[in-house]
Structure formats: structure tokens, C-alpha cells
Amino acid sequence: MNIGLDMMGGDLAPLEVVKGIQLYLQSKFIEANIFCIGDEAIVKPLIEEQLVSSPYLHVVHAPEVIGYHEHPTKALKEKQKSSIAIGFYMLASGKIDAFISAGNTGAMLVGAMYSIKALPGVLRPTVSTIVPKLSGKTGLLLDVGLNADCKPEQLNQFAILGSLYSQHILNIANPKVGLMNVGEEEGKGNILSQATYPLLKDNTAINFIGNVEGRDFFNDKADVMVCDGFTGNIILKMAETLYEVAESRGFGKDAYFNRFHYENYGGSPVLGVAKPVIIGHGISSALAFKNMIDLAEKMLQTDLCGKMKALFETAQN
Amino acid sequence: MNIGLDMMGGDLAPLEVVKGIQLYLQSKFIEANIFCIGDEAIVKPLIEEQLVSSPYLHVVHAPEVIGYHEHPTKALKEKQKSSIAIGFYMLASGKIDAFISAGNTGAMLVGAMYSIKALPGVLRPTVSTIVPKLSGKTGLLLDVGLNADCKPEQLNQFAILGSLYSQHILNIANPKVGLMNVGEEEGKGNILSQATYPLLKDNTAINFIGNVEGRDFFNDKADVMVCDGFTGNIILKMAETLYEVAESRGFGKDAYFNRFHYENYGGSPVLGVAKPVIIGHGISSALAFKNMIDLAEKMLQTDLCGKMKALFETAQN
């Protein structure tokens, strides 16, 4: 398998990306070729300096960089030699099998949707995040920001995509799907959640257990929590802050609060597209990059995108 | 001033209500007459047993109780001798000036809206919650559940109501108002937040500082955070759980996490109605009831509802 990394994306790039690759290469039996996409003049010396030498490592020259505040579509069109544009070109043409970047999130999403495209039958791809549960288990929340306004049919698809991810990547058999809502009973909620409930209830591809509430975020009521991207993004950013809150109160070393640290969960995969695309946090560190490579590897090993494609193909017929 | 308490509302009622009144009566120079609305045969002996004797204490007989799972409108109509129905009758007729209950939330909201009614010019009343900030300050979040689906004009009014509450009850001069959203820049968000932003920007009755995100919940970026009741309810219930999460990790005694304990913040006031109505948490304890009486007292002392009325009257003309 071939995994591509944007060497120029992230506040701490390219140094932390190189260090992350080093961590990955040292960690285990290597299964993947790593394609380092970035400015050769910067990346090559850095790799040498960090003594990361490996037959699995390949540098792909990309002289341009898409900045954080550039307009995604415009930047992708105008900067065809940028690390993100070249990454998606390589992904679409099969030169790499997965692409990781902690750069411009918008450009990553636009690239994912327009270069490798949504799977047939998928209305809109989605971005998920893992949720550290108090029990030690790992839940999944989606959408966390790609789709601010959603239709019930989209939430129903997120439930399927999230279930497959939970099953194959988080190793949870028959994951319980909950609809993030403001009350337990059917009929509670806003117009969207009221209309979504019956779709989830009738969906035989998932194990729907009903509504969950804000208080269930940390417990094991549901493994997969589904909501629109507006709600999900606010929950995600609140949860991400818990590590800092705990740290400021002197509990930064607590194992549970530590799991909310962005470093430890790596990046957010885009689900519902044909190939693994992982978007990193802007301040991704070496450990975060290492975790994202591990995640890409696991998504490829389990052929998660293929399983998603097959399920949506069946649903269409 | 006369404050009415539903003695029968809440999982721990009536004992904890009586104990809460006792805490209140012991705490300071008493300014309010307390009207204990509930079944005389139960309430009177309990008051005597707890040795709560005071010239400020009056028992009002209400032989019926509205249960947690009863339909609000139906129950209020059919159980006119319930503590909640009698409470609102007394409030509407001026026999009491404020009403507190930890009973059926729906019945409290229906009662607030149909017996004492929304202030002229207020589209929909709202329910807020206080937000413990890491700095030690106290923020306000609204709506937290009364209005699952909102129009931009409603959010704009919540901003005004929340600002007045923050100013007069939380003693924050010129409170900073933020729109809870998924990005910092104007133009970010879902259809609702995109349409709300310009209204808040043009609203001269508030100090609008722009969008806030989930990560700003705990910091001082905004004193008043405005959102629809679906989003707000999920945030509220997540935040309420933080005390339990911290406790389960062994940090239950931490002063900051303790502020998320429902006991310490008491109840949620309904804003935008003509008189103070405070809804308690289902598991309200003595301390929670005491804090709710204090809050009602402060809302009356500052004539908060009068100030809200005046501002909306000005806005109409």
C-alpha cells in the first residue's frame, strides 16, 4: 500500500511530519510506502537531518503550498503544484492509496469530493471524530462540520458510514447507533431529528438504539452518535477543549482527559468517498501524524472504503 | 415580595424543598414571603418536623400533583388543583411575584407562556443556563431547550434577554454577546447562524462580538452565548455531565468542575415572560432550591422582567 503525506500542511510542518514518519517507521513491521509530498528543497534535507532513511520513503516534489486562509476551490485550481493538489492527483490516479494532510481543511474537503468523489449512492461525504468514552471504549460522532445543514436522508447515511467505521476500524461488533437529540423519546427534537428518527428506525443496515442526549456523550449508550455538522462541530470543539480544561485544573496527566488531546486521536477521516482521506488538526504534532498514518494503514488493510461502496451498491438495487 | 414554591416538584420533593427553604431562611436577612404550594397534609407536618417556623412561611393547599410523564397542556387543564396550576394562578393574579418548581418542565413552560404570557414584542420566551467559566466568571447560554427550531429574529431577541440577565443578575457590565457557531468569521455556519449574524451585528441593544465556537464555551470570549434550543440543550447536558466525569476520575472536589454540579447553579429561569419563573432540575436538592429562591429574590429586587418589558416596548416604537 502507498500512503501520501502532505509535508507542508499544519502549523508545525514539515518538521513534525518528518518526525511523525520517523515514529511510524520505528514502530513496527512496515507495510506501507510513504510518499512525502512537498517542496523537495525543504523536505529532503530535513529527512536527512532527522536521519529518517528507509526504502519505504519517497519524496514527491510539490513546490507550492496552499495557505490556511486561501479559498479552497480557487487555491486548488490555481496552485496545481501545491502539495494538496498533487496529493489528490496521485490519489485519483492510483499512485497513492490514501492521502493525509493537516493543511487547509476546506481544500482537503473540496479535493476529496471533486477529485476522488463521493461513493455512488452517497449523498454527501461526512467527517467524523472518535469519542473517548469513560468506560475506556471509543465512540464515533458524525458529522462534525462538513455539512452544517443536513437532510434526514443524509443523517441516515452517516449512520451507515459511521457503523462501518466503528465496526472495522474501532473493532466494535454490531455498533449501537444513537441519534443525538434533546430527549429520549421518539418525537422529541427539532424538525430534522424528528424526521430522521423513523428513517434510522427502519434502517436494517444499522443497530439503531434511539435518541441519545448531551449527557450520553461520555457513556456507552451509543457507539455511533449521529447529528448534523453544525451540532457535531460544536460538540467536537467543546470536547477537544476538555483536555485543556483538565490541564489548567492540574489534571493534565489524567488518562481519560488525555484521550481528548488532539495528538492522541490523530485526524478526522472523510467518510463516504472512494479512498481514505484523513484531515489533521492544524497543530498536529509528530504523534498526531504517526497516528494518522496508522489510521490510513488500517483503513486500507480493512478495505473500509470498499465495504462502504459495496453496502451502498446493495442499497441502490 | 412573595415567592411561590411548588412543594411537590422534583424527585426529592417535598423533603428537599422544605430543607431548601430552611437554608434560605437561615441564610440572611429575609426579604421574601415564601408560599409553599402543595398537599397540606404532607407539607405542614414536614415543615413542623424540620422545625422550619417563620412568620414569612405560608402553606397553600394544592391536593393534586402533575407527574413527570404527564402531557403538559392536558395535565394543566385537568389538574387545576395541582401545585403547578395553583402556582401559575397565584402568579397571574399577583398573589405571588415569582414561581419556582422542579416538577414537570413542560407544564412549567406551558404555564409560563399561557398564564403569565410572553412580554409584548417577545416572539418566544427562552430558557437559559449559567456557564461556569475557567476564569471564575459566569457566562450565560441560551436557548437551552425551549425552542428546538428557531428563526434568526428569535436568536436576536435571546441576545437581548440574555444581555439583560447577564447585566442585572450576573453583574456583568456591557456583557459580550457571541453567536455560537462553527467558525470565527462572518458567513460561517448553518443557514440559521448565517442569517442571524447580520441581525446581531445591527442590534444596538447588545454588545455583539461575533461568532464563538465550542472551544470558547469555557473561556471569556463571550459572556452571553446565543444559539437555538436544540444546540443549546445538547451543550447544556454535556456540560452538566462534566461534574460526574470529573468525579468519576477522582476530581469531584475540584472547585471548577464542582460549579457544573446542578446543585450549585440552581435552576433555569424562563426569560421573556412577564414575571420570574424558575424551573429546577428534576433531582434538585435543598441547596438547589435555596439557590433558586435566591435567584427569584434577585430577579425581583432588580426588576429584571420590568427592564426587559421596557426595552422591548422601546424597540416596538
Task: Give a quick precis of the structure.
Chain A is α/β, with parallel strands linked by helices and 317 residues long.
Unreliable spans of chain A are none
Oligomeric composition of the shown chains: homodimer
> How many structural domains of chain A?
2
Strand order of the largest sheet of chain A: 3-2-1-4-11-10-5-6-9-7-8
Q: If you compute it from the alpha carbons, what radius of gyration of chain A comes out, rounded to the nearest whole angstrom? A: 19 Å
Helix content of chain A: 40-55%
Query: Major sheet of chain A, described briefly?
Result: 11 strands, mixed
Average pLDDT confidence of chain A is: 94
Number of helical segments of chain A?
A: 12
CATH classification class of the largest domain in chain A = Alpha Beta
Helix-strand category of chain A? alpha/beta
Question: What is the terminal separation of chain A in angstroms?
Answer: 31 Å
The ordered H/E elements of chain A are EHEHEHHEHEEHEHEEHHHEEHH
**At the fourth CATH level, what is the homologous superfamily of the largest domain in chain A?**
Isopropylmalate Dehydrogenase
- List how many beta strands of chain A DSSP finds: 11
Most extensive interface:
A-B, 39 and 39 residues
Sum up the overall morphology of chain A in one term.
globular
Strand content of chain A: 15-25%
If you consult CATH, what is the topology of the largest domain in chain A? Isopropylmalate Dehydrogenase
Description:
The structure is a homodimer of 317-residue chains. The first copy, chain A, is an alpha/beta fold and 317 residues long. Chain A has two domains: 1-118 and 272-302, Isopropylmalate Dehydrogenase (3-Layer(aba) Sandwich), CATH 3.40.718; 123-271, Isopropylmalate Dehydrogenase (3-Layer(aba) Sandwich), CATH 3.40.718.10. Chain A is built from twelve helices and eleven strands. Chain A has helices spanning 15-27, 40-49, 72-78, 83-92, 105-116, 152-168, 191-202, 229-248, 255-258, 262-265, 286-301, 304-316, and strands spanning 2-6, 33-38, 57-61, 98-101, 126-132, 138-142, 176-180, 207-212, 224-226, 268-271, 277-279. In chain A, strands 3-2-1-4-11-10-5-6-9-7-8 form an eleven-stranded mixed beta sheet, sandwiched between helices. In chain A, helix 1 (15-27) packs across helix 11 (286-301) and helix 6 (152-168) packs across helix 7 (191-202). The relative contact order of chain A is 0.17. At the A-B interface, helix 8 of A face helix 8 of B. Chains A, B: GO terms for molecular function: phosphate:acyl-[acyl carrier protein] acyltransferase activity. Chains A, B: It catalyses: a fatty acyl-[ACP] + phosphate = an acyl phosphate + holo-[ACP]. Chains A, B: Catalyzes the reversible formation of acyl-phosphate (acyl-PO(4)) from acyl-[acyl-carrier-protein] (acyl-ACP). This enzyme utilizes acyl-ACP as fatty acyl donor, but not acyl-CoA. Chains A, B: Belongs to the PlsX family. Chains A, B: InterPro entries: FA_synthesis (IPR003664), Phospholipid_synth_PlsX-like (IPR012281).
